Amino acid sequence: MKPPKKNLKRILMIATGGTIASKRSEDGLKPLITSEELLGYVPDVKEFCEVTAMQVINIDSTNIQPKHWLLISSTIEKYYDQFDGFVVCHGTDTMAYTASMMSFMLRNVPIPVVFTGSQVPIASPLSDAPLNLTCAFAMAASATPGIFVAFDRKIMLGCRSVKVRTTAFDAFESVNYPYAGVV
Q1: 161, 96 in Cβ contact below 8 A?
Q2: Is it the case that residue 99 has pLDDT exceeding 80?
Q3: Which of these, 139, 148, 146, lies nearest to 90 by C-alpha position?
Q4: Among this protein's residues, is 98 annotated catalytic?
């Protein structure tokens, strides 16, 4: 029997939809996977953090509006004192914009807020989602304050990340600034 793990970082995963949470439907891919289902694809994160999942919206990221930014930022602010970090699952089409906005909306954030998504839905074979999500949880558990994007083993500042490729797994780059980390 393994002894219980002590002092695991408490992370709130906020799901917003996007490709990472999509399934095939009659109308093509649609974000239908819940936050709890997403967690089921990354069971190993329980080794280094304690995760609570929350679904705030479940939409394609091309439909993200300023009202959604307010919802994401107010959810994070509401739970600052209860968690050590946040992971936000988001669609890749507008993730860089949302992460950049959070850099301004959550100025001087005292804990890590890490955005991630995927090019291929998490339920699909060979998806990049489990790796991206695991890297996001690792960064959120690092206690490094700030807004970040975790994608393809790279950690970027939220206000410096840009989607530069639409189909490749290395879709995001950091503009004129070094990566905050590489996993």
Answers
A1: yes
A2: yes
A3: 148
A4: no
Q: What is the pTM of this model?
A: 0.93
Angle between helices 92-105 and 66-78 (to 10 degrees): 60
> What's the rounded Cα separation, in Å, for the pair 119 and 81?
32
How many whole angstroms separate alpha carbon 38 and alpha carbon 43?
A: 10
Chain segment 118-139, per-residue pLDDT in tens: 999 999 999 999 999 999 999 9
Q: Which tokens belong to 136?
A: 């996001």
Other Cβ atoms less than 10 A from the Cβ of 26: the count is: 5
- Give the C-alpha distances (Å, rounded to integers) separating 169 from 16, 50, 58: 20, 27, 22
Phi-psi region of 153 (alpha: psi -120 to 50; beta: other; left: phi over 0): left
What digits encode the pLDDT tens for the residues 38-97? 999 999 999 999 999 999 999 999 999 999 999 999 999 999 999 999 999 999 999 999
Start-to-end C-alpha separation, the chain? 30
Task: Return d(Cα 83, Cα 99) in angstroms, integer.
Answer: 19
Which of 19, 94, 98, 116 is the catalytic position?
A: 19
